[in-house]
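Audit log entry. Action: structure prediction of a protein-small molecule complex. Ligand: zinc ion. The ligand was supplied as SMILES and no pocket hint was given, so placement is left entirely to the predictor. Protonation state taken as written. Sequence taken verbatim from the request; no trimming, no tag removal. Recorded inputs:
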Amino acid sequence: MKKNWTSKKQKSITHEKRDHLDMLVEFTNADLTNGSSNPLMRRFADFLNLMMVQHRKTHPYIMSAEKTSIMQGLQKHFRTRFYKIIQNSQHYVELPLWTVEGSINFKVDTPYRFYERFQFHNVKEENELEAMERLIDLILIEIIRDLDFRPRRFHQCPKCKSYFYQPTEKERIYCSIRCGDAVRLQKFRQEKKKLQKRLSEESDKK
Ligand SMILES: [Zn+2]
């Protein structure tokens, strides 16, 4: 991927990467068998096609939302990646996540700018799903690096099992207000039941 060297803190890059991550997380959690996910799958396919422009040699594909088995395979791949980040960030030791094999070409783009371009190693017998998985691995690394995210900002919602990231440093347990409220309501009802049971037991004793 061609990447001009600019300050990582530059706002436009942060915004763009956030938008990408939002879309990828939405894709990861979506029910792809539901027709309402079709616009999301099309956006995801467009995004991949754009990313592939820089990797024509190793990725001579055109993605489309109609490639159902690839779409489903990629969603599964995202889920295993997010799951692994969350699992490995629970520990205080260095743990591997994944490896992307290739090389970085480093050039002077204009007299004022350097740029780096990552190129995948060529693989014999390329298979489309595998190639896309490697592209996704690279994309995720770039997004996380540019956003300067800590691993513990990735989570899986204990209520609905969706993957999500905390947009700020403030710790979040549930993916949404809806899930948080649902759990609080459930706890409140359980407490109420317990209390009622205790009260009725106490009145029985009298
Ligand atoms: Zn949730």
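Audit: result stored. Residues 157, 159-160, 162, 174-176, 179 surround zinc ion (CB under 6 Å). The chain has two domains: 2-167, 176-206.
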